[in-house]
Amino acid sequence: MTATTTVTPVVQGVNLVKTFGRVVALDGADLELYPGEVLAVVGDNGAGKSTLIKCFSGAHIPDAGEMFVNGERVEFKSTNEARRHGVETVFQTLAVAPALDIASNLYLGREERKSGFLGSAFRMLDKKRMREESAAHLKSLGISTLQNITQAVETLSGGQRQAVAVARAAAFGSQVIILDEPTAALGVNESARVLKMIQDLRDRGLSVILISHNMPQVFEVADRIQVARLGKRAAVVTPQTHTMNDVVAIMTGAMTVPVEEQQLTPVT
Amino acid sequence: MSTASAGPADLAEEFMERRTPLQRIQGVLHKYPYLSPLIVLLVAVVIFYLLNSRFLLPQNLSFVTQQTVVVGTLAIAQTLVILTAGIDLSIGAATTLAQMMMANLAVFATASNVLPFAGQNPYLAIAAGIGVGVLTGALNGFLIVRLNLPPFIVTLGTLSIFTALTLIFFKARTIQNKEMPDPMKWLGNTFQIGEFQLLYGVIVMLLMYAIVGYVLKNTAWGLHVYAVGDDPNAAELSGISTKRVIFSVYVVSGLIIGIAAWLTIGRVGSASPNPDPLLNLDTITAVVIGGTSLFGGRGTLIGTLIGALIITVVQNGLSLAGLDQAYRVLAVGILVIAAVAIDQWIRKVKA
Questions:
Q1: How many beta carbons lie within 10 A of that of residue B169, not counting itself?
Q2: What's the gap in Å between the CA of A181 and the closest CA on chain B?
Q3: Hey, of A125, A168, A188, A198, which one would you mutate to test binding to chain B, going by the most B CBs within 10 A of its CB?
Q4: B220–A125 C-beta distance less than 8 A
Q5: 3-state DSSP assignment of residue B32
Q6: Using the beta-carbon criterion (under 8 Å), do B234 and A96 form an inter-chain contact?
Q7: Which residues contact residue B50 at a Cβ distance below 8 angstroms, ignoring those fewer than 6 apart?
Q8: Do A122 and B219 lie within an 8 Å CB cutoff?
Q9: Average pLDDT of adjacent 10-residue blocks, chain B of 351 residues
């Protein structure tokens, strides 16, 4: 409800378009994520939530539109490029390799190598360092359920796997963490733990994009809620100004929110 | 949160610790997948020794290692491919092509219309043969990665292509032992350790197992091979270029095929354009019996070596016992099915 702001979004998407054959997933979608906030993205199935965040993850390349990180124009062609800009994603599928151990998964795709020639030419792994640092990361995130860092991920429970994926993102994400349906497969206790982790990430100064179907969870942790509808941004509201019923109504098109009533700027 | 749930969690953990003996076995096999083939190998050795005590004589054991060398070396290449959830059906045909290239270049002046250095330098011939092996792997890899075709179909096609190329370029002529210059047969030399005769080729094979095994375990490339076979989407999303990894695996396996071609000439002493029809399947069998999953992402090279040994031990033991080789085929068939069944079971492990 402030008119203008000078805060630059950490991540911004303008008029993003993405089609898959004849299916239009994004039809001019916008998104702004401000420093230190949790932005929830909600919407019906097929509203383009996952497609939208996958553009920022580098998993999808938008057909049209512009993306910015800290005001700088970016074009992500791979997840690695997004990661280099400090944008980490916990995908819905978690993207962990089940047969590999926890430490290998945390460092998958950016392994620590031995110093010197062995590391640069032969890409020799520094396993010891990866194990030690993985254990330290998990500890700093308060994940105590994963004790044996050399355990294969497939031997873990769903919540523990989720924790591995979140820990990986948190360990490397310097700016933005995107979580796609992080609690969809989890029980009550495990979900609560993930929500706690999201709040901790925000407290550490990171910005978080959370995709979820679970309204109570969204209302619990989100600073702002972006409602996606038909590949566009229908509205951005806050848990304070709107109820869950309002949000569902916006999702289905039963309700529209005038721009001046939306929260398009950071919550102060 | 964690303190609140500490009580019940501890109780639950205590309950979960109480695993049945079967679950314990499952857990151990999950951690050391080569254990079951090792047990099979030891049991086979004991049985064949009881059937005929000559089985364990040094001469016979030397013979077993010599029989293992070709399948054993090619099985390294096959393991790499299968770890990425692929398969190489062209492995035998590619070996024959590389081998005929080597032999013809080393021997034939008539091949000089193909390459100018034919019949002059056997070392160049060996290098060219290994190069052909690399090219066969690169072709497979290119078709799989670039055209996005399933490895099964690609290598089924190249199996025919390599076989045909061998016959077109080198006719149906076998290069005999006496024609072959010595460096070609060098890996067929042996030296004595007591009564045990060790083939140079066996040492080369073991060295390759050691090197590739070490690389798989200790380099980023090795880790990525496992990750790509385990879950290609996860690997890609984690920033691994799955295509590059898969292509490199086929190229490396081509290099191993080239070396195996040289080994084959050393072991057999001659070079025949007709590949051993069982070679393809034997390499796959060795890998599968050795505990590597056909679905990719899990397995060990040491298991493959044990698998290759099982094949030759069964073959050798049955002939010493005077039994029909049909039993070998029978035993290998049962072992393959058992190995895959065990693999499926191990995958369901819970900590």
A1: 14
A2: 16
A3: A125
A4: yes
A5: coil
A6: yes
A7: none
A8: yes
A9: 44 60 82 86 92 90 92 97 96 94 79 60 89 97 96 96 91 80 84 86 95 94 95 92 96 97 90 83 93 90 95 90 84 86 77 46
